Amino acid sequence: MVSNSPVPASLELPPVPAPGSPRRLEGRDKLTGRAQYAGDFTSHLTGGVLDAAVVVTSTQATGRILTIDASAANKVPGVRLVLTHENAPRLHAVLATNGAEIGDLLPLQDDKLHYYGQAVAVVVADTLAAARDAAALVHVTYSAPAPDAAFTLAQGRSRSQDVKKVGAGDPGQVQVGHPDKAFAAAPHQVDLTFDTAPHHHNAMEPGAIVAAWEADGGLTVHLPTQFSYGDAVILGEAFGFGLKERLPNIVAQVLGGIEFHHKVRVVSTMTGGAFGSKNANVHLLLAPMAAKLTGRPVKLVLDRAQTFSMMPFRGEMHQRIRLGADAEGRLQAVLHDALLAKGTAGQFVAPIGEATTKVYATPNLGLHVQAAALDTNAPGWMRGPGAPNGQFALESALDTLAYQVGLDPLEIRLRNYADTEPDTGKEWSSKALRECYAQGAERVGWHQRNPQVGSMRGENGRLLGYGMATAIYPTLQLPARARIVLGADGRAVVQTANHEIGQGMITTFTQLAAETLGLPLEQVRLEWGDTRLPYGGMTVGSMTTLSGGAAIQEAAQQVLKTLLKRVVADQASPLYNLAPATLRVENGRIMGPGGASETVAAAMARQPESPITEEATTGRTMGHSRYGREAFGAEFAVVSVDPDTLHVQVERLVGAFAGGRILNPLLVRSQLMGSMVWGLGQALLEQTAMDERTGHWLNDSLGEALVPTNADVADIDIILIEEDDSRGHPLGVKGLGELGITGVAAAIANAIFHATGQRITSLPITLDKLLGTPLPQSAAPASNP
Amino acid sequence: MRNFGYLRAASAAEAVQAGAAPQVQFLAGGTNLVDLLKYRVEQPAALLDINRLPYQHIEELPDQGLRLGALVTNAATAYDARVQTRYPLLSSAILAGASAQLRNAATNGGNLNQRTRCPYFYDVAAACNKRQPGSGCAAIGGHNRGLAILGTSESCIATFPSDMGVALRVLDAEVRLLGPAGERVVPMAEYHRLPGAEPWRDNNLLPGELVTAIDLPPAHFGQHYTYLKIRDRLSYAFALVSVAVGMRLDKAGHIQEARVALGGVAHKPWREPRAEAVLAGQLPTAEVFGAAADELLAGAVGQGENNFKLALARRAIVRACQQAAAGTPQSQSDKHIR
Ligand SMILES: Cc1cc2nc3c(=O)[nH]c(=O)nc-3n(C[C@H](O)[C@H](O)[C@H](O)COP(=O)(O)OP(=O)(O)OC[C@H]3O[C@@H](n4cnc5c(N)ncnc54)[C@H](O)[C@@H]3O)c2cc1C
Ligand code: SF4
């Protein structure tokens, strides 16, 4: 999209809390409701016509659709179409690079049911009210459900199969040394199993899409997404477009720097929370299918309940961790077995061992991942995506080991500090985890606590506890391309089809380009989120700055070089004939030795017909490095537990993070804080309840799917530790969006153990789980009347 | 949402007349009813908007009680100076419920008549005797973590989810009704029903009957009271178990009178005279409170997922009684259970 509002000067706002932290450039638009989300579209943005589409979902998980009676729905005034598998356009197979369900299961192609809440019809009408009304009148009958349907891991255990590749291609099976033997021989052993509940994204913005077919056969869609080019390719494949509309456009840009016109255009101006949920969704196909038949633009917005069954979520996970250690608590063997839920359609299996294989030094390491395909919609990417659960298990087990060996939980982590990458032996590009441990411990008062379990008391007899865990998240990079045009007015336009998902991409990219070009922020404008712009890659995996930022920096450096060459060759410039290497550009002014200078605008104005345009493509090697590249942190929790009601209150969270160079401390802090709040929710609240008889997600509303409120959230302290990671990445940055969540659930569980002596091995830790066993000096156990 | 008629009642007489027709429902704040329409749980032919009827005030009663108009919002009631000083238990219970935004819209009459939060009641594809008589009860043997342990029946195990109602029960409030046949007054104890074989009947309102006010008897329990609400998160969540307590202590510290009601565990706010009898005349100790809790919970049975409520309720009762006896009521602004 092309931002039509100029970059707002910082106006009357109070000063930013940290230098180098411009505020969100789109913040005012969001606050005032001017920011345009797909769901906000009205007909004046689509040429005067915009129909509303409402999805009808199945109320049975397995079996077949016997009949769909749309006659009552069709009679509702204003209804234009009831799209079902009987009249839907036939789609061509698509490749979902993120393993999403549509790679295996295209919507409305046949009568087979795969899960409860599956799209079985789409009603299109002139108004949303008519479409909703009619949707409720679509009458669907089903054959008997399968007697052996499985909706939970307990029900589907017999479907378990080994998984070769997890996540985006990480190995599902790892063996270093002889972990089984080493475990058996270890003087200290811990063997624990962990269960974590499924939970859903619940981004404020639900899935939404506006689709319009053009007269020339082209297709334009507006939708919140994390991968506009990827969605365009999927649409190109599904609707049988020519070769150009498929992968070749991406490949040509990435490999050859060639862009060609694409008949499918995907525009993604604002994405109201993504975190893995908005990429290759089912509704991406539904709206264009409907619009194709009606011949009119269609807007489809999922209702909240539909986001539970038509968008991905964090699936149920069962894990077993075995740790073997020597007498001093040094790990001799780490064995991580996991059984993860997946859908019968969709390939995603969370990279559950991504932390286990990287976090602690051990001579013997085993990872064994299995998945069971359940009759539910497909689990998918969700902030972390494997590490929060993997770390919950591993760090809880390590904590147990610490108490068993008689070591301070912090000390056992230092004793097992990995000086090289555990599974590869590579040197780290940088790793300031020791400082994270030290500063985090200092801030939370770790060494002042009484380490004895169950020994600390807070106000009103509450049990106090301290816990900690290591945070870890891989540092990745994907291909991306950027173009920068420096105009005759001395202003730069930066173009790249990356996405604003709430993380602050607009601000960071603008800031980065301005800094590299030596221009004030106000003279740089970003265009983003549109497949008419250069390929911006996927906005996933905490890689936005690493991927897109690298391309922007390189393009900006080239622009700068061209500019300097131009001025020293320009007789009209006061910098004429100086060596380019002696010039620098700051705040929009080019300065040479001895005080010679002129503004960039003045220099550019002399050749108004030739703006400077440079392009750069980076990340072709997918960030492949001879170094181990991870971001680390240390997370600490202080909890208090009411001895009577078992209510757990997180009193404090402290996170100390080492993430390379920090470009914008304000945004980074807010990313990490959001991540930690999510971790708190995962630890104590978040679970989607499934009716185990029907496969229906029951608490599918914001009122019933509990996420933390302000009252639940603790004081959160964030410490940022800068690292020089220039040998890891040209900008020296690391991925920080997801790092914050990875250790929180474990830190809280460990704090609960310290407070109560109870090792709760399932998430979320609700009070019914704590009611199970006695507490230190607890109130008299309740009798069951 | 299906199309429906919309009528605005100009007078109470008109409201009860029109309201007596089948398929007509009163609309107050709409915070519950409009959701139910969206979910198609309720599909009335017409809504009768009662918001302009003259039940908008809180008034003094001759016996020094207070009359709470049915259309006064939950927020206005909770923050009314008379309620806050004379009936802090009620104020506290209201503020423990829902969210500030909801309380600003929700009315006292609506709060008393809100429907259950049983997940299957909201799911029109599921069997539910309350929503569809005779269809069965999906919650029995299903996801019933939040549902009842007391007074359940084979046809329904739902709870009445109100916080306000639990305090009203302790205060021995009376509900004033106006119907086609005239006015009547029903004590809180008899207002809500147990599910029995007719779980679709939440309460004893007759067709067309309108709640006009809630009368509070002369003030009690300004000092020794608490509303302790146990829930998974500290705000914007329904109670797993809640306890309202009002007590009077004599100078020597003996309990002269104690009233205890439970929320989140039954189809109505749950009170048991035998439990209160256990407390009368006793010194406030954990043992005495535990004994009262056992009486209050007599006959409680878990339904599977909610078995934990038996232990939790006992602990909560003891704790709430301690809070009340000590004169340290649960804060609803800090929310942390301290
Ligand atoms: C997300 C959410 C969370 C909530 N959390 C809580 C909570 O924690 N604790 C809690 O106690 N409540 C909670 N509530 C419920 C809230 O308190 C009720 O929705 C509210 O009190 C209903 O009042 P209303 O005026 O909006 O009623 P309406 O929605 O207008 O009506 C509700 C019902 O009462 C009937 N009715 C209304 N007024 C009268 C009258 N004068 N006479 C006869 N019948 C009448 C209506 O016909 C309807 O059947 C929550 C609600 C929501 C949506
Ligand atoms: S408990 Fe009551 S409300 Fe819930 S499903 Fe059963 S009958 Fe319906």
Main-sheet strand order of chain A equals 3-4-1-15-12-13-14
Head-to-tail CA distance between termini of chain A: 64 Å
Structural class of chain B: alpha+beta
Mean pLDDT of chain A: 94
Which class do the helix and strand fractions of chain A yield? Answer: alpha+beta
CATH class of the largest domain in chain A: Alpha Beta
Helix share, percent of chain B: 25-40%
Weakly predicted, low-confidence segments of chain B: none
Total helices of chain B: the number is: 13
Helical stretch tally of chain A: 18
Q: Helical residue percent of chain A?
A: 10-25%
Main sheet properties of chain A: 7 strands, mixed
Side by side, the strands of the main sheet of chain B go 4-5-8-6-7
Task: Give the CATH H-level superfamily of the domain at 224-326 in chain B.
Answer: CO dehydrogenase flavoprotein, C-terminal domain
**CATH secondary-structure class of the domain at 224-326 in chain B:** Alpha Beta
Mean pLDDT of chain B: 96
CATH topology of the domain at 224-326 in chain B: Enolase-like, domain 1
